[in-house]
């Protein structure tokens, strides 16, 4: 399948996944999908693991290894995923790599999960490359039926520009706007604006719910989907499946 093995000591690259639900806010008992989150015993903060891999020039390999493990793991849960979306983080540099598309085609031929259930969530921890190059890669994935999401919208100018240029299927709004949403008229105005700007073209997910008050406010405003500790904490796959 191409290069998906890290040339690093095994004890330093051992990792696993947990998942966090993304819920339909009109019915908090209805799951829209799950985000797959990377965890490592050796690196308590996943960003430290990615930074280490980047320093070792192994970021692509780690990203691909994580994607491969996530998809093959959930391939065994295909029946439980029917009608749901599986959000898998991916770095922009991985997405534009020809090796990624080669590996994906090899993996796709073995999957029972339909592409329409797989959401590639572009990781904002890495600076966006040339948007024209990224857009070509995204259009190719969309043609194959895969779904594209952009994370942390509202965190900076670059993410807003990416939404306008890349036209993702799903827009995930940064948790900053969720915190104290119930008591912040300014944040409520921003959320309403984002719903107007992106709601017709993309599915909106508001991240970072940690209390009932903010959730009720978002529901009243018409935010369709949400994610956060109040709706479900990251847990091992078997806790939700």
In terms of DSSP E residues, the strand content is: 15-25%
Q: How much helix is in the residues?
A: 40-55%
Q: Please, how many helices?
A: 10
Q: In which order are the strands of the major sheet placed?
A: 1-2-3-4-5-6-7-8
- Mean of pLDDT: 87
Q: What gyration radius follows from the Cα positions, in whole Å?
A: 18 Å
Assembly annotation: single chain
Based on Cα principal axes, name the global outline: globular
Unreliable stretches = 1-12
Order of helices and strands: HEEHHEHHEHEHEHEHEH
Structural class: alpha/beta
Largest sheet data:
8 strands, mixed, barrel
Strands, count? 8
Overview of the molecule:
With 241 residues, the protein is of the alpha/beta class. The chain contains ten helices and eight strands. An eight-stranded mixed beta barrel has the order 1-2-3-4-5-6-7-8. Helix 2 packs across helix 3.
State the gist of this model.
Helices cover 40% and strands 19% of the residues. It is an alpha/beta fold and 241 residues long.
Architecture blueprint of SSEs:
Elements: H1 10-13, E1 16-24, E2 31-39, H2 46-55, H3 59-75, E3 85-90, H4 92-95, H5 98-108, E4 118-122, H6 131-143, E5 147-153, H7 157-166, E6 170-173, H8 185-198, E7 203-206, H9 212-221, E8 225-226, H10 237-240
Parallel strand pairs: 2-3, 3-4, 4-5, 5-6, 6-7, 7-8
Antiparallel strand pairs: 1-2, 1-8
Helix pairs in contact: 2-3
């Amino acid at each position: 399948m191409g290069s998906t093995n890290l040339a690093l000591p095994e004890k330093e690259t051992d990792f696993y996944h947990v998942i966090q639900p993304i819920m339909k806010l009109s019915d908090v008992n209805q799951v829209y999908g799950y985000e797959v989150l990377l965890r490592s015993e050796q690196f308590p903060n996943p960003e430290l693991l990615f930074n280490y891999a980047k320093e070792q020039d192994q970021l692509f390999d780690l990203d691909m290894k994580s994607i491969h493990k996530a998809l093959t793991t959930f391939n065994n849960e295909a029946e439980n995923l029917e009608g749901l979306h599986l959000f898998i983080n991916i770095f922009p540099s991985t997405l534009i790599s020809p090796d990624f598309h080669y590996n994906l085609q090899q993996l796709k031929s073995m999957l029972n999960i339909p592409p329409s259930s797989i959401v590639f969530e572009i990781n904002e921890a890495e600076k966006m490359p040339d948007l024209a190059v990224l857009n070509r890669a995204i259009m190719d994935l969309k043609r194959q039926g895969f779904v594209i999401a952009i994370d942390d919208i509202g965190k900076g100018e670059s993410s807003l520009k990416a939404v306008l240029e890349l036209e993702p299927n799903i827009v995930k709004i940064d948790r900053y706007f969720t915190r104290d949403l119930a008591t912040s008229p300014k944040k409520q105005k921003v959320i309403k604006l984002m719903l107007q700007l992106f709601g017709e073209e993309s599915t909106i997910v508001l991240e970072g719910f940690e209390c009932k008050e903010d959730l009720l406010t978002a529901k009243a405003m018409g935010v369709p989907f949400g994610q956060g500790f109040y709706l479900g904490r990251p847990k091992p796959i078997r806790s939700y499946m």
